[in-house]
Design a protein that fits this description.
Largest sheet: 9 strands, mixed
Number of strands: 28
Protein name: beta-glucosidase
CATH superfamily of the largest domain: Glycoside hydrolase, family 3, N-terminal domain
Bound molecules: beta-D-glucopyranose
Structural class: alpha/beta
Oligomer: single chain
CATH architecture of the largest domain: Alpha-Beta Barrel
Distance between the termini: 64 Å
Catalytic activity: Hydrolysis of terminal, non-reducing beta-D-glucosyl residues with release of beta-D-glucose
Shape: globular
Number of domains: 3
Strand content: 15-25%
Number of helices: 20
Organism: Microbispora amethystogenes
Keywords: Glycosidase, Hydrolase, Signal
Family: Belongs to the glycosyl hydrolase 3 family.
Length: 752
């Protein structure tokens, strides 16, 4: 290479000139020195590359790395290069004018080429809220919102959801998702309750497998964000961006716990919460950001603010130099400005030059950001990997979403076993404002920030799912408001609930009941005398106690996303309901906040959910059993008197293995003619498997002997084919063989 022979001072001069002019240095000139630089060498350790790169960076470069602007705020694309922007984001609904996967990829590459044109050619990292699939992109697969994923109790499935999302995100070039929300929603009035996997920190912790789904997706891996740190779901009154008034012990037990798990999984970034803790804004909280997160928990990634989060520190609109200094010195590494990035950079530099922000803090922030960029492979593969573009909305991903929908549904009432509905014969009436509305069933953060009703993206509505499933087997009549029903129908399915909302606008301070449109629809259906099945599409439990006795069946469908067929599958028995409540269901709105273990008389307690094979109780379950607040664990309720199933049982044991680790899904089928009340499943491993975590059961291990006892909510396994499922994760070396034999309450089971 001729450039190697060029005297260094010429190269330096050209580099300086190019930087000053903001022009693209042609190959063989300014970049030549960088091309030989250690930081460009992928064979060197990341830390060495970071050190080398950092030693070459000016304050302009470093300030730029810490700046994140919204794509829509850029005055011109070349500002990415001129201001050395380290990151760009799309806020909710911030999309290229042609909202197709390849336009997104083109837009991304265009920004990236600007970043690569700078002397050091540091790639930018692009972030987006892919919070239930790649939800800003028309045609992407929209998965159930987190509340539904929490109901599945299936960490392996949730990891697969993360991986599918990562592939779709990668196919549009984007490197980073602002997900998962590890919020532990303690008050359903909060408009972000649906972004929470559960009110129970343990369940939220189990669902951090989604971080692995995002970050361990092979070439499609993207950076995950644990948000919003910390206490966002604990605000007084459930007010968005409000004040979380808790002792430090409670803050740690309820809200910090899931972040600990995410850090252990190597989550790449953490987003600070808008909320305050005991009156102090989180964006300025050095103790929690630096001492606890980075120190105590050992977080090695970078901390990003929320959208204009620093602006709120002094209670005045806009940001000041002082607010920048407070946030950066508290431990923030990157600021989601998102609009006036020019002013931000100039104030940040001014604060460093004046010594109010130590250079060591700036270097630490850059080190953290650059480490993640190197680890992601951005320096080697800065542009979109178009081999993933066709996965956006692919059949394979929609199949994962449909599975997630099926497993997220919680059957809350099934009087007279009206469900499942027969697929053939007679007529079925479908009604309700959310029966044929892809926007309603997807909720907020879909195509636009707040989401909207209507035909906003590609997918299958619940009505369409029913029609596809039933085919010509039965007549399906649809009328949105229920008009036209008469007694000739064998069942009415009403799909009602909430219309889309997101942060702020979704807070409900007053009633939490159904709206007048829904009540009128339900009234019409009820008046016909036809058995009424209610499918509730909502971001949280609603106040329905006043209507429940008029309904024959109730299914909580949460916000299922684009794969409405999954709802039909369960209504018609192609899948069995297996979801369990991730939130306590209040008897009335004035019980809020209501959470497991607080002694309040819930309508349906945390963890409740019926199976098809278990006869429903006469009335909804009584008050929750008192258990210690705030983090009750599933307690085994199998009694010593639990008897073995006469006539047998079947156990299926499936594992998902990776180098040294695995998750296992176990289903017990009761083949006897009486229900099993309280169960204990035991087996002995031939290998050296070691169980490290579990869900939907309490699993203990002594040597190679394992005992799994039912959780409080799945102790009954119905007669003649009823099932109970649970899972766990563990480690092994050598082979991870399936155990040869299982006993259920002492009796041998068949292995399937
Ligand atoms: C939300 C975050 C989101 C960010 C970027 C904020 O208003 O609180 O959850 O990641 O905007 O869209
Ligand atoms: C953006 C969102 C952001 C919100 C913050 C909206 O304009 O689209 O992404 O979370 O502002 O208030």
């Amino acid at each position: 290479m001729t450039s190697r022979l060029r005297p260094p001072w010429i190269i330096a001069l050209v580099t300086l000139l190019a930087a000053a002019l903001g022009v693209v240095p042609a190959a063989g000139r300014g970049v030549a020195r960088a091309a030989d630089a250690p930081y460009k060498d992928p064979s060197l350790p990341v830390a060495t590359r970071v050190d080398d790169l950092l030693s070459r960076m000016s304050l302009d470069d470093k300030a730029g790395q810490m700046t994140q602007a919204d794509r829509g705020a850029l005055t011109t694309v070349s500002d990415v290069a001129a201001y050395r922007l380290g990151s760009i984001l799309s806020g909710g609904g911030s999309a290229p004018s042609s909202n197709t996967p390849s336009s997104w990829a083109d837009m991304y590459d265009n920004f990236q080429r600007q970043a690569l044109s700078t002397p050091l050619a540091i790639p930018m990292i692009y972030g987006i809220d892919a919070v239930h699939g790649h939800n800003n992109v028309v045609g992407a697969t929209i998965f159930p919102h987190n509340i539904g994923l929490g109901a599945t109790r299936d960490p392996d499935l949730v990891e697969r959801v993360g991986r599918a999302t990562a592939e779709e995100v990668s196919g549009t070039g984007i490197d980073w998702t602002f997900a998962p929300c590890l919020c532990v929603a303690r008050n359903d009035r909060w408009g972000r309750t649906y972004e929470s996997f559960s009110e129970d920190p343990q369940l939220v912790t189990q669902m951090t497998t989604i971080v692995d789904g995002f970050q361990k997706a092979g070439n499609a891996s993207i950076l995950a964000t644990a948000k919003h740190y910390v206490g966002d779901g604990g605000t007084t009154g459930g007010r968005d961006q409000g004040n979380t008034e808790l002792s430090e012990a409670d803050l740690r037990a309820i809200h910090l716990a899931p972040f600990k798990a995410a850090v252990q999984r190597g989550v790449g970034s953490v987003m600070v919460s808008y909320s305050s803790w005991n009156g102090a804004r989180m964006h300025g909280n050095k103790y929690l950001i630096t001492d606890v997160l980075k120190g105590e928990l050992g977080f090695k990634g970078f901390v990003v603010t929320d959208w204009a989060g620093i602006d709120q520190l002094d209670g005045q609109t806009g940001f000041t130099a002082n607010e920048i200094t407070t946030a950066i010195n508290a431990g923030v590494d990157m600021v989601m400005v998102p609009n006036d990035y020019k002013k931000f950079i100039s104030l940040l530099k001014q604060e460093v030059q004046a010594g109010r922000i130590p250079t060591s803090r700036i270097d630490d922030a850059n080190r953290r950001i650059l480490t993640k960029k190197f680890e992601l492979g951005l320096f080697e593969k800065p542009l979109t990997d178009r081999s993933y573009t066709s996965t956006v909305g692919s059949a394979a991903h929609r199949a994962v979403a449909r599975e997630a929908v099926r497993k997220s549904l919680v059957l809350l009432k099934n009087a007279g076993n009206v469900l499942p509905l027969a697929k053939t014969g007679g007529k079925i009436f479908v009604a309700g404002k959310s029966a044929d509305d892809i926007g309603n069933q997807s909720g907020g953060w879909t195509i636009s920030w707040q989401g909207s009703s209507g035909n906003i993206t590609t997918g299958t509505t619940i009505l369409q799912g029913i029609r596809d499933l039933v085919g010509s087997g039965a007549q399906v009549t649809y009328n949105r408001d229920g008009s036209g029903i008469d007694s000739s129908y064998r069942a009415a399915v009403a799909v009602v609930g909430e219309t889309p909302y997101a942060e702020g606008q979704g807070d409900r301070t007053g009633s939490m009941g159904l709206d007048s449109t829904d009540l009128a629809t339900l009234q019409r259906l009820k008046a016909s005398g036809v058995p009424l099945v209610v499918v509730l599409v909502s971001g949280r439990p609603l106040d329905i106690a006043g209507q429940l006795d008029q309904w024959n069946a109730l299914v909580a469908a949460w916000l299922p996303g684009t794969e409405g067929r999954g709802v039909a599958d369960m209504l018609f028995g192609d899948s069995a309901p297996s979801g369990r409540l991730p939130m306590t269901w209040p008897r009335s709105a004035d019980q809020e906040p209501i959470n497991d273990g607080d002694g309040k008389d819930a309508l349906f307690k945390y963890g409740y959910g019926l199976d098809y094979t278990v006869p429903p109780p006469q009335s909804p379950p009584a008050s929750p059993s008192p258990s210690p607040s705030p983090s009750p664990s599933p307690s085994p309720s199998s009694s010593p008197s639990a008897s073995p199933p006469a006539g047998g049982c079947l156990v299926t044991y499936r594992t998902n293995d990776w180098g040294g680790g695995y998750t296992a899904d176990i289903t017990i089928t009761n083949r006897s003619s009486s229900a099993v009340n309280g169960w204990r499943l035991q087996w002995t491993y031939a290998g050296n498997q070691k169980i490290t975590g579990y869900w939907n059961a309490v699993v203990t291990q002594s040597g190679q002997q394992v005992t799994a006892s039912n959780a409080s909510y799945n102790g009954t396994i119905g007669a003649n084919g009823g099932t109970a499922s649970f899972g766990f994760q563990g480690t092994y070396s050598g082979a991870n063989a399936t155990p040869a034999a299982f006993t259920l309450n002492g009796a041998a089971c068949a292995v399937g």
